Amino acid sequence: MKAALIAALLTASAVAQKPDARLAQACGPEGARFKVTLDKMQHTMAPIESGKARIYFIHDAGTFLAHPPGYPTTILGLDGAWVGANHADSYFSITVTPGEHHVCATLQSAFVDQRVELAHFTAEAGKSYAFRTRLLVSRDVELLELTPIDSDQARFLVASYPLASSRAK
Question: Is residue 44 part of a domain?
Fold first, then answer.
């Protein structure tokens, strides 16, 4: 009886330690770190390549203490690879092929607990899509939020925020 209980506990522990397949499907490899630079020029939505779709990743930091030095960078993944990062209020976009895609957002920070958000969508040729991330912080909780947003809201934020260029460290 004891042996069966120990075996069941070890099996449950091993299962709990396996990475979730949804993370592998959407996020890139663990331990990724990015350096982000911001272009504060006025920006507009980019044209969409023929036969492709465009995705905008926008981070809306709000007034989070005027973006202190420790404000985390948000790393975005698509279909199992990291595609870029945002810092504070910023955005970037990528071109994708039509079809189903899996999105991952996580934080690069030593000050805020690790958070992962996932989403999926089906891209259609000639269309653009936008996802907004926000870090919601209270005295007791830090919550990373990833949500699809309306094209009007995306256009407004793109015009308001700097373009983020990122490279892996």
Answer: yes
